[in-house]
């Protein structure tokens, strides 16, 4: 009966040994799959942002840094770091007869997700120089000008 007990133990031993071997085999294949590099041809997409520039009244030129765009309405496509969320953009709208109007915009995540951003400026009239008296205090006369057209 002692020899019968030994034959029962021997078949139960190999599965215990085989289990760690199969776990080790799975463990060795997983690390090989992880460090697969991204193919070098695939570059991350360049961030772009389409900006719609408008002003009231229209026809203004818009400066962004050393670049000028316009007249409004105009569309500008920004790339690289200018198009990233969190970047600050400083626009200056200029039009003859109106004050220069600065507009500061911070690109937020909703703009980068949509890929578009609207920038609108309301231009104010530039104050005209008021008539000043002549430095000598006398009236200014223009030759050939008559006070009355009749």
Sum up the structure in keywords:
single chain; 150 residues; alpha+beta; 3-stranded mixed sheet; 7 strands; 25% helix; elongated
Structure description:
By secondary structure, the protein is α+β, with helices and mostly antiparallel strands. It is 25% helix and 28% strand. The protein has two helices and seven strands, in the order αββββββαβ. A four-stranded antiparallel sheet has the order 3-2-5-6, with no helix packed on it. A three-stranded mixed sheet has the order 4-1-7. A hairpin with a 6-residue loop joins strand 5 and strand 6. The longest helix is centred in the N-terminal third of the chain and has 32 residues. The radius of gyration is 39 Å and the shape is elongated. About 3% of the residues have low confidence.
Summarize the helices and strands and which ones pair or pack.
Blueprint: H1 2-33, E1 48-56, E2 61-64, E3 67-69, E4 74-79, E5 88-94, E6 101-106, H2 109-114, E7 116-122
Parallel strand pairs: 1-7
Antiparallel strand pairs: 1-4, 2-3, 2-5, 5-6
């Amino acid at each position: 009966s002692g020899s019968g007990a030994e034959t029962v133990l021997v078949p139960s031993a190999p599965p215990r040994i085989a289990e760690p071997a199969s776990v080790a085999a799975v463990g060795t294949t997983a690390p090989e799959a992880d460090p697969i590099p991204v193919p070098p041809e695939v570059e991350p997409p360049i961030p772009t942002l389409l900006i719609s520039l408008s002003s009231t009244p229209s026809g203004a030129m818009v400066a962004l840094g050393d670049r000028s765009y316009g007249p409004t309405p105009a569309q500008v496509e920004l790339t690289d770091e200018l198009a990233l969320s969190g970047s600050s953009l400083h626009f200056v709208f200029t039009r003859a007869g109106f004050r220069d109007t600065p507009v500061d915009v911070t690109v937020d995540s909703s703009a980068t997700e949509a890929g578009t951003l609207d920038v609108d400026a309301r231009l104010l009239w530039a104050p005209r120089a008021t008539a000043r008296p002549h430095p000598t205090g006398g009236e200014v006369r223009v030759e050939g000008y008559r006070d009355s057209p009749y």
